[in-house]
Amino acid sequence: MSAWRSGGTTLKVGVLLALERAVNASIALDPATQKSLQALDGKVLHIVCTLPSHSVFVLFVDQHIELWSLFEGAADTTLSGSASAFFSLWRVRHKATALAESHVVLTGDSLLLQQLQNIAAHLDIDWEALLAERTGDVVAHQLGRAARQAGVWFTGARREAERLAREFLQFESATVPSRHEVASFCRDVDDLQLRMDRLQASIAVLQQQRGD
Amino acid sequence: MTDPQNTTHFGYQQVPVAEKQHKVAEVFHSVAARYDLMNDLLSGGVHRLWKRFTIEVSGVRAGHKVLDIAGGTGDLAFKFSRLVGADGQVILADINASMLNVGRDRLIDRGAVGNVQFAQANAECLPFPDNTFDCITIAFGLRNVTDKDKALRSMLRVLKPGGRLLVLEFSKPGNPLLAKAYDTYSFRAMPLIGKLVTNDADSYRYLAESIRMHPDQETLKTMMQDAGFAECDFYNMTGGVVALHRGVKP
Question: Which end of chain B has fewer surrounding CB within 10 Å, N or C?
Fold first, then answer.
C-alpha cells in the first residue's frame, strides 16, 4: 500500500496523550511554573532518541504542553541522543554544564533549553493539594509528611550505599582505584608521553647531525 | 421506477439523489444530542486519537485560516482555535443545523470564542471565496456527502495554493481477520448499542452501511487526484479501520 506512513500511530498518539495529560495535571499544581510556561508560547522542542529510535515534539501552548508524534514544520530546538544519554543529562548535578557533560546533541535555539532548565529547577508541585481533593486536608498532610520522610530516608540510604560500595571496591577489595589515583596515573602517563616526545625529537636531531 | 442514473446510495439502499441529503440530515438530527457519547462508546475513545493525529498532520500555525467541514460537535475546531490564536480564524461548518448547534454550544462552553465562526454549509458548494483557507479538514463527513467529487472540487477552490486538505474517514482494514471482526462489530454491536443508548438502531445501522459503501483508501486518493489535488497520500490508522488522506492545492 502506498500510504505515506503506517502502523503504530494510534498507540503512539494514545501513549503521548496520556503522558501529556499527566504532565499538564502536575503543572497545574504549580501556578508559578504554569505562568513561566507562557514565555515559551508557540515554541517547539523536538526530542530525538536514537536508541531506541523514537521522537516526540513538545509544543508549548497556552501555559501547558502538548506532546505530538508528528509536527509539520521546523522545531525551534532539537535534542538528540540515546536513551542513556538523555538519562545522564537528567541525572547530572551541575545543570549549567549538563549538556556539555552528556552525549546529547543540541541544534537550534539553546535559549529554549535554558528556559526549560530554569523552569524545571524551580518546579514545586503541590502534591498534597492534589491528594487533599480526594482524601481531605488531614490525611493528605499525614501522607505527605510520611512521603517526605521516606524520601529523605531513601536519599540518605542511597548515598550511604554508594559510599560503602565505593569504599569496598577501592579500599577493601582494591578492585578499582580511587579518583585521585586515576588522576595521578593519568598525569604520569601524560608526563611520560611528553618525555618520550622530547626524547624522540632529540634522537631525530642527533640522527640528522650524524647524517650531515 | 427510479432512474438508476439519478440514484445514489444511502447505506445499502439506492435512493434518489435529491433524497439522500434529506435522509442523512434525519440521521444526524436524531443522533446530535448524544453524538459525543456515542462516538466514545462505539470507538472506545479512540476517535479522539484519530482526531489528534489529524491536528498533528495539519501543519496549522498561529494566524492560519482553517475550515472544519462536517465539524459536528467541534472537536477539531476547538483544537484549531487554540493553535491559530487571536490572529487566526476557524470556521466550523456543518450542513446539519442540529449538529452545528451542539458544536457551537460546546465551543462556547469551552471558551473557544473570538476566533471561531459557524456556518451551515453544504460541502458540495462551499459559500466562501476562492483561495481563502490554509487548511480544510473533514472528519467522518465525506461518506455522507452525496456528490463527493463535487465536494472535493469545492474544497480545492476555497483552499489557498499550498493549503492542505485532510480527510479523516472510515476505510478498509488491510488485515482479513481484523476486517471480519470489524464487520461483526459494526453490524451486530453498533446497532445494538445505538438501540440501548439512543433508542435508534437504524441510524447506527446506516453508519455501518455507509462505511462499507465509502471508497477505499486507494480509490479516495485517486478521487482527490482527479479533483486536482497534488501530493495526495493517506495514512492508515488502527489497521486501516480509519484512514487520513492528505492533498495539497498546487
Answer: N
Grid coordinates of B21: 441529503
What is the spatial distance between Cα A9 and Cα B76, in angstroms, rounded to a whole number?
18
Q: Which of A171-185, B29-43, B219-233 has the lowest mean pLDDT?
A: B29-43
Dump pLDDT digits (tens) for A24-62.
Answer: 888 888 888 888 888 888 889 999 999 888 899 999 988
Which of A 68-127 lie inside 8 A of B, CB atoms? 68-73
Confidence at residue A6, expressed as pLDDT on a 0 to 100 scale: 54
Please state, in angstroms and rounded to a whole number, the distance separating the CA atoms of residues B149 and B137: 16
d(CA B221, CA B213): 16
- As a whole number of Å, the end-to-end CA separation of chain B is 44
* Residues of chain B contacting A, Cβ within 8 Å: 46, 48-50, 52-53, 56-59, 61-62, 82-83, 174, 217-218, 221, 233-238, 243, 246
Q: Do B246 and A73 touch (CB under 8 A)?
A: no
On chain B, the residues whose CB falls within 8 A of the CB of A73 are 59, 61
Question: Residues A131-144: what's their mean pLDDT?
Answer: 85
Q: Considering only CA atoms, give the Rg of chain B.
A: 17
How deeply is A104 buried, as exposed, middle or buried, from its count of CB atoms within 10 A (0-12, 13-18, 19+)? Answer: buried
Chain A neighbors of B235, CB-CB under 8 A? 3-6, 9
